[in-house]
Amino acid sequence: MKLMVMVAHPNLETSRANAALVKELQRREAADIRLLYREYPDWKIDVEREQRLLLAYDRIVFQFPWYWYSCPALLKKWMEDVLTFGWAYGPEGKALKGKEFMAAITSGGTFNCYQAGGENWFTISEFLKPIQRTFTKCNGVFLPPYVLYNANRASEEELLEQSRRYAEHILSPAPLLVH
Ligand SMILES: Cc1cc2nc3c(=O)[nH]c(=O)nc-3n(C[C@H](O)[C@H](O)[C@H](O)COP(=O)(O)O)c2cc1C
């Protein structure tokens, strides 16, 4: 399986959680890792290049810190620019048919914050619905997300353990993730 991990963190230099996840993937040489904010510091996304790259992978993981119950703005812009009518969706838009997409999120909030009755009321899966539908509308398969909760308070050991679990999750075949 050809795996791309698109990391969308506006400031990876100050990151603990996303940096730990990236480090583990680099150690395993498990995926082609891309750093969206470094590739496009001017926010001018090369749509043809991005579409070409998408075609070269079986699974695309979007890894990002959870910002205001969604993804950071440049990743949203990436979706708006790259997922074009007639290519990604619409009657002729079948380029992404069958590709697997996944979100990998680090959140400041705890697991309990993201439950009914908790501080945020809804689960991360519920908040992810617009992104889920974006990729299923583009004929992709949207796999269960990986979520690292309580990211800012996690110890180095916890981050390491989470990084290992993260790598296992994103490398798992779809039938093991969806059951
Ligand atoms: C602009 C901004 C918005 C944020 N919004 C949320 C949020 O809606 N929910 C949440 O749980 N954490 C939120 N956070 C916390 C981040 O998700 C958290 O700091 C990040 O996942 C830590 O990862 P890092 O060490 O890789 O930066 C927000 C942080 C920032 C800077």
Report what the structure shows.
The protein is of the alpha/beta class. The chain has a single domain (3-177), classed as 3-Layer(aba) Sandwich (Rossmann fold), CATH 3.40.50. The protein has eight helices and six strands. The two termini are 20 Å apart. The protein binds flavin mononucleotide (FMN).
Distance between the termini: 20 Å
The CATH topology corresponds to Rossmann fold
- Count structural domains: 1
- What structural class results from the helix and strand content? alpha/beta
The largest β sheet comes out as: 6 strands, parallel
**Helix share of residues?**
25-40%
CATH architecture: 3-Layer(aba) Sandwich
Itemize the secondary structure elements and their pairings.
Layout (H helix, E strand, L loop, with lengths): L2 E5 L9 H12 L3 E4 H4 L7 H9 L3 E7 L7 H10 L17 E7 L17 H4 L1 H9 L3 E2 L3 E3 L7 H16 L2 H4 L2
Helix pairs in contact: 1-7
This protein binds flavin mononucleotide.
Index terms:
binds flavin mononucleotide; alpha/beta; globular; about 15% strand; 6-stranded parallel beta sheet; Rossmann fold; about 40% helix
In a few lines, what is going on in this structure?
By secondary structure, the protein is of the alpha/beta class. It has helices at residues 17-28, 36-39, 47-55, 73-82, 124-127, 129-137, 156-171, 174-177; strands at 3-7, 32-35, 59-65, 100-106, 141-142, 146-148. Residues 9, 15-18, 65-69, 106-109, 151-152 line the site of flavin mononucleotide (FMN).
